[in-house]
Amino acid sequence: MRTRASLILRTTVPVLLPLFFVFAVFIFMRGHNEPGGGFSAGLVASAAFALTTVAFGPEAGRRALGLAPRVYLGAGLLVAGVSVALPVAMGEAFGKGLWTSITVLGRELKVGTPLAFDLGVLLVVVGTAAGIVFAFAEERD
Amino acid sequence: MTAWLMAVPLAVPAAAAAACLLVGRSMRMQAAITFAAAVCQLAAGVALTAEARAFGPAALAVGGWPEGAAIALVADMASAVMVVLVGTVAVLAVPFAASTIDRRREAFGFYPLVNVLLLGVAGMVLTGDLFNLYVWVEVTLIASFVLMALGGGRLQMEGATKYVALNVVASALFLTGVGVVYATMGTVSLGDLARAAHESGLAWPTESGTMLVLAALLVKAAAFPFFAWLPASYHTPPIGVTALFAGLLTKAGVFALLRVSGLLLSGGESRDTAQAVLLTLGGVTMVAGVLGAAAHTDMRRILSFHIVSQCGYMVMGAGFFSSAGYAATLFFLGHNMAAKTGLFTAAGIAYRLAGAYDVRALGGLMRRHPALAASFAVCAASLAGFPPLAGFFGKLALVQAGFTGGHFAVAGVALFTSILTLYSMTKIWHEAFWKPPPSVSTAQGRAPWPAWTALFGFAALSVTAGLAAGALFEFATLAGEALADPAAFIQLTGSAEP
Is B64's CB within 8 Å of A92's CB? Predict the structure, then answer.
């Protein structure tokens, strides 16, 4: 990008980023019984990368993302795929939701294949959205 | 029956797409993964067919939810055979596409997209749920749209824009139709809907919704007057992509058309309306496609118009609403997937060898490349319907089913169209293969071996399917019965008595 983004944006984005991620986690966990889930959480998380790109350029966006968007896409598909195929390996119906609970910090937490599937969706959404944003941002240069 | 088997044609391409994205830069690896996925899909199709034949149709309630609540995949004879056909085209056409595509497009996600395309097509074939059919149609559309636009030449973008514009209209029709059906019936399970359709007939708004879905599927199947997207776009992407599309896209659309019309529109008054629509449009499509082909000299455009024309035969077959009609349509569909993809492969090889798609710029291919000429001749003759090739038996069965059902007019049109098809094929033959080469010597290239393998494979299939037509018709007949009689489907995917 030729012109630098406004000072306000460059100052607020680093503060906002953690909030985006916390909010994404919140939406992700809420999604099991209420509106939310992997898709909207993925969009919120990718908004963070998009903002970074707008404020500091696509290179900073890519640095924040860490891995190539393609890897997020592939990993997401793989996680989602494993989560629906896993029940078959355990003698259950294809795509059946299997649940178990683990104790984290003294609190009981239910985890299961639907959660893993949602995580896969999240990764796919982040990979896709970030890929699109980077492609547009880099095209202008 | 091992129910999870029918998830394999979906799970394998999905996993392969993920693997291709993860392995990244190694194109060789990605190609190998994609080919392996195609082989798995074919193997799963064969296993499903064997099981459906031995133990009858089966359904997989995804997620293990109770019947009626679950979204089902259905493997009966029809869908299992269709998976075999899709797998066969994929096994031969994927290496062809991979060997002829340029590095830039290849590196830009070609293999993951091909896998998603295979996923979408398998989903369209196996699903037992109207809304999921829509979803799979969209998956296929998105993958094919990106494949078509990939590389982004000016011409390619123009084709892709037309392609996506018309197909998005179809998607809107489809989704509206599904919405109307869901609003009035409270379900989108094909089994439940089929039960309602056969017990009491579809009431007014539901029937209209179903007709909207039918219209959308006619767009997908490239029927008149909705076929404009196909000849406007199929000649623009690289030839390997076109070959894959020719073998898979409209064919999956036709199969969905067979499935939906067989289940939802085969009872009561809806049947008469749908029959009139399908037979008329089928007849007009045949003629419109073949006439369109007569006006062109680019091999890809000629062949694209022939896809339309051949789809007309299949739409007509769907309109017979008889198990003989469905059996003939499926056989014809399979023959067409082989012959048509084979012809596009031949066009691609001719381009590699002589540097042109326009038949006027070609010539002398018969003398210089007899193997290419022979394989092209086999596929073209099969398409035109010469015995003892597969196309002859497909057309024979279709016309027979038409005469048996008393649809003389449209069956006559089908016979007449055959002659016009022959005209187009002889045009290519005469110009590209027979006439002396043009005085300005054109490029002399080489074609990669997977292209030859694919071409010989498709030609061999056209011959063997003709010679073994009796044995194959046994499968087609069973599949036709599965499409014509919704009872088994209703039992498998419908909820318990309402």
Answer: yes
Residue A1 lies in a domain: no
Question: Number of A:B CB contacts under 8 A?
Answer: 63
How far out from the chain centre does Cα B133 lie? 15
In a domain, B368, yes or no: yes
Q: Across the interface, do B62 and A93 touch by the CB < 8 Å criterion?
A: yes
Task: Identify all chain B residues contacting A84, using CB atoms and an 8 Å cutoff.
Answer: 7, 11, 62
How close A73 gets to chain B, by Cα (Å)? 7
Which two three-digit tokens encode residue B51? Answer: 């099981």
pLDDT given at position B57: 86
Q: Does a structural domain hold residue B248?
A: yes
Domain count, chain B: 1
Q: Which of A74, A95, A96 sits opposite B18 (nearest CB)?
A: A74
Cα separation values, B435 from B302, B357, B476, Å: 18, 15, 40
Inform me whether the pLDDT recorded for A2 exceeds 60: no
Instruction: State the Cα–Cα distance between residues B292 and B269, nearest whole angstrom.
Output: 34
Q: How many CB atoms lie within 10 A of CB B429?
A: 20
Helix axes B299-319, B408-428, angle to 10 degrees: 160
Report yes or no on B277 lying in a domain.
yes
Residues of B in contact with A68 (CB under 8 A): 24
ipTM of the complex: 0.80
Domain count, chain A: 1
Sequence-distant (≥ 6) Cβ neighbours of residue B317 within 8 angstroms: B258, B282, B325, B326, B328, B329, B332, B398, B401
B303-327: pLDDT as tens digits: 999 999 999 999 999 999 999 999 9
State whether A85 and B63 contact (CB < 8 Å): no
Phi–psi pair at B497, nearest 5 degrees: -40, 130
SS3 B189: strand
B24 touches chain A (CB under 8 A): yes
Q: Which residues of A touch B60 (CB under 8 A)?
A: 93-94
Q: Is residue A110 part of a domain?
A: yes
Of the candidates B23, B52, B217, the one whose C-alpha atom is nearest the C-alpha of residue B115 is B23
Please determine, for residue B110, whether its predicted confidence score (pLDDT) is greater than 80.
yes
B4 has a chain A CB within 8 A of its CB: yes
SS3 A99: strand
E strand or H helix at B35: helix B27-55
Closest to B90 in 3D by CA, of B138, B124, B40, B46: B40
Q: Is A102 helix (H, G, I), strand (E, B) or coil?
A: strand
**Residue B498 belongs to some domain of the structure:** no
Which residues of A are less than 8 Å from B72 in CB distance? none
pLDDT tens digits along B244-257: 999 999 999 999 99
Q: How confident is the model at residue B447 (pLDDT cuts 50, 70, 90)?
A: confident
In order, the DSSP letters of B225-272 are: TSTTHHHHHTTSS-HHHHHHHHHHHHHHHHHHHHHHHHHHSSSHHHHH
Compute the nearest-CA separation of A95 from chain B (Å).
Answer: 4
